[in-house]
Amino acid sequence: MAWFKKTRKPIGSNEKASRVPEGLWIKCPSCSRAIYHKELIEHHQVCAKCGHHFRMTAADRLKLLFDHGRWTEHDASLRSLDPLKFTDTKPYRTRLETSIKATGLNDAIIVGSGFIDEVPAVIASMEYTFIGGSMGVVVGEKITRAAERALGSRCPLVVVSCSGGARMMEGALSLMQMAKISAALGRLDRAGVPFVSILTDPTTGGVTASFAMLGDLNIAEPNALIGFAGPRVIEQTIRQKLPAGFQRSEFLVEKGFLDLIVDRRELKVTLARSLRVMMGLPPAAPKPAPPATLSAAPEEAAPSGG
Ligand SMILES: [Zn+2]
């Protein structure tokens, strides 16, 4: 049937290759606006028009939260030994090597200590591009050590979650991390050292079911997917349509699962102020000139209200 054969070349096939290098413009998935890459970095990976929060790397997150973007890294050399010699579509060992090469990290988390608006703190930040930010023995061990470090120096612990949940290639060993981390957080709690959980898109599975929901303060980024099982799995199980916005930050705040939603551009200010209140520290002295990249207006020092 010659009718359906394309005899002519498709339109545009002779067009010259674009002179704009790949990745210089990024289309916002929410408002479809083309955003210049540099502008996106300046706004901490947030669309200036609609406020869509793009995913952030673990290192960028630490740069955003720590003063002068500087921190001391801990336990960077810990690596998974593939305890189950696991293979699915490809060997777990190969997956690990690929992710290590792609991210420059040894596992899906960076732990660092430094200052958040002059408050000493330990931050553990998860890396989604490393096997979906999944929690295996290394992630579990590093968060536990971060909690112990915070306890030892009596400075607050902040964990930024961005994870698909437990790492199934490590089977039950990954699930045991939930209990191990929770126990370490319990010791922190009994010692009266604050723990703040920051939930970003996505925070699901065993991470939500353990430490991400155990914060003295649970802060989420706008429109982040937060839940245990995915919405499709729940719908298939209960055979009911889920309400609009189910498992998004806004829905969860309304239902009392989270304490507050904070725009990333105001995250550091809010976090620092909360830590000061929880640690019983005086409010920070007003700064003479805020950094040019921060769009938030310098706020009055909050009165110490109990
Ligand atoms: Zn947008």
Can you give a write-up of this model?
This protein is an alpha/beta fold and 306 residues long. 31% of the residues lie in helices and 15% in strands. The protein is built from nine helices and nine strands. The chain has helices at 37-42, 58-65, 92-103, 137-153, 171-190, 205-208, 231-238, 249-254, 267-279, and strands at 25-27, 34-36, 72-74, 109-116, 119-126, 157-163, 195-203, 217-220, 260-261. The strands form two sheets. It has a seven-stranded mixed sheet with strand order 3-4-5-6-7-8-9, with helices on both faces. α4 (137-153) runs parallel beside α5. The longest helix has 20 residues, at 171-190. The chain is globular. The relative contact order is 0.10. Bound molecules: zinc ion. The site of zinc ion has 8 residues, from loops.
